[in-house]
Amino acid sequence: MSAVVAIFGAGTGLGASLAHRFGREGFSVALVARRRARLDALKDELQEAGIPAETFVSDFDDPSRMKALVTDIEARMGSIDVLEYGPVSADLAFTPAKDLDAQALSALVPLFLLSPVELVAAVLPGMLERGRGSILLTQGSFAVTPLAFVSGPAPVMAAARNYVHSLHGELVGTGVYAGTLAIGASIDRSEMSVVAAAAGGGGSDGRGSVDPDDLAELYWQMHTRRDVVEIVHPSPRMPMTDGAAA
Ligand SMILES: NC(=O)c1ccc[n+]([C@@H]2O[C@H](COP(=O)([O-])OP(=O)(O)OC[C@H]3O[C@@H](n4cnc5c(N)ncnc54)[C@H](OP(=O)(O)O)[C@@H]3O)[C@@H](O)[C@H]2O)c1
Known about the structure:
Layout: E1 4-8, H1 14-24, E2 28-33, H2 36-48, E3 53-57, H3 66-77, E4 82-85, H4 102-106, H5 109-130, E5 133-140, H6 153-171, E6 176-183, E7 186-187, H7 191-198, E8 209-210, H8 212-225, E9 230-233
Helix pairs in contact: 1-8, 3-5, 5-6
NADP nicotinamide-adenine-dinucleotide phosphate (NAP) binds next to helix 1, strand 5, strand 7 and helix 7.
């Protein structure tokens, strides 16, 4: 049975590139998101490339469903060897910190903190027993570098980032790796970039753009080398593809 990468938040941007990158290495791919038609289209694309894939419809706004979701994936595909978590919607809005309150912030906590913790809790015992596995958490770079007027999801992502850093240290020597990739640019081919382009933003959010194939390559390096807990991309000193300053 081939190794399994489970992509929690599988869309046309990073999710698709990750599926192809790990698929090229012989992984089977579990694709998870809410809209079946888009998942099925990605599954067909992967199968045309000779990559086995299965789809799972789930909403990560409900952390109580995560354990059953993992059970379902592992029953159909075998143990999850690589877990990547990076859901995002085109309508995700950053807000000024001064406009936040408990109600607004707590609405973001299930998706950006509780569900990834639940998923890790579900896969980690098996990974530790097998002595191998990778847990990869994708974030916006605002989780690492706070910025005025860009709050809301950012502090919740920062909490999840903090959790992954602790996890990384606790897993040293077990064969299981945890790391996080923080992205500070618009991802080409993602629904977010398509919506921004349609709205006249040129597909970029003003921070430049990155090719998700390059991000997937970074994740492959993190998974195989297992020596860094975090990469911020583009690095603050790296020129953007559209020439914007970092
Ligand atoms: N796109 C960007 O420009 C950008 C910029 C900086 C950082 N990032 C980060 O990079 C990562 C990948 O972004 P991407 O745009 O390339 O993603 P993607 O792989 O193109 O798609 C992510 C998928 O997550 C799914 N999703 C959203 N909310 C969900 C929920 N509640 N439950 C289940 N699935 C859900 C969406 O599908 P459904 O709607 O069908 O569920 C979406 O297609 C994310 O962590 C994001 O925060 C993205």
